[in-house]
Amino acid sequence: METQDQAAAAATTDGPLPKGRWHVVPGRSRVGFKVKKFGLYFVKGKFSGVEGWIEVPDDPAATHGEVVVQAKTISTRMPPRDWHLRTRDFLGVKQYPELRITAHGIEPSEDGDFRLSATFEMHGERRSVTLAAHAHDHVLHLEGLVNRHDFGIRAPWHSEWIAAPEIHLDVELGLERAS
């Protein structure tokens, strides 16, 4: 049996996301990433402190929103590495406690998915990114690539070669309709 929320969402879908204002549900959302180490394998991690909102107007191309990530919530399931990633060598969480993804619009693609134009803010720097996206059952999934060097993040000279500069993003945002 369909709930009122599902019926309302189905009735207002003209684009890849249902029209209206949506809140990101922190407990059902994560910002995942992976970085190649020594050029051999990927180290995976995630940020668990995620919140935000998305607004889908009558024109789905004008969709906008913002996701705020608490930098201190980084986890690679290796506490010494996580501690190092929080230092000034990488995230500098004392000076830059948040990462932000600000959406500026979407462009549908032929396969039913879409591309999200956004600004990614990390370490006090902002860069434009385009993220591949799809939505299913009130979950928005985003994937993309950012380069940590673009944000001024470099390890000390003697260890810069250990981790590749490319960060592969894998974001899942659980959404609920705003009341």
Short description:
By secondary structure, the protein is mainly beta.
Keywords:
179 residues, mainly beta, Lipocalin, 2 helices
Plain-language structure description:
- This protein is mainly beta and 179 residues long.
- It has helices spanning 4-11, 79-86; strands spanning 20-24, 30-37, 41-47, 50-56, 64-70, 74-75, 98-108, 114-122, 125-136, 139-147, 166-177.
- The chain has a single domain, classed as Lipocalin, CATH 2.40.128.110.
- Helices cover 9% and strands 50% of the residues.
- An eight-stranded antiparallel barrel has the order 1-4-5-7-8-9-10-11.
- The longest helix is centred in the N-terminal third of the chain and has 8 residues, at 4-11.
Strand order of the largest sheet: 1-4-5-7-8-9-10-11
- Counting DSSP H or I runs of 4 or more residues, the number of helices is 2
Q: List the helices and strands in order.
A: HEEEEEEHEEEEE
Helix content: under 10%
How many beta-strand segments? 11
Q: Mind sketching the topology for me?
A:
Layout: H1 4-11, E1 20-24, E2 30-37, E3 41-47, E4 50-56, E5 64-70, E6 74-75, H2 79-86, E7 98-108, E8 114-122, E9 125-136, E10 139-147, E11 166-177
Antiparallel strand pairs: 1-4, 1-11, 2-3, 2-11, 3-6, 4-5, 5-7, 7-8, 8-9, 9-10, 10-11
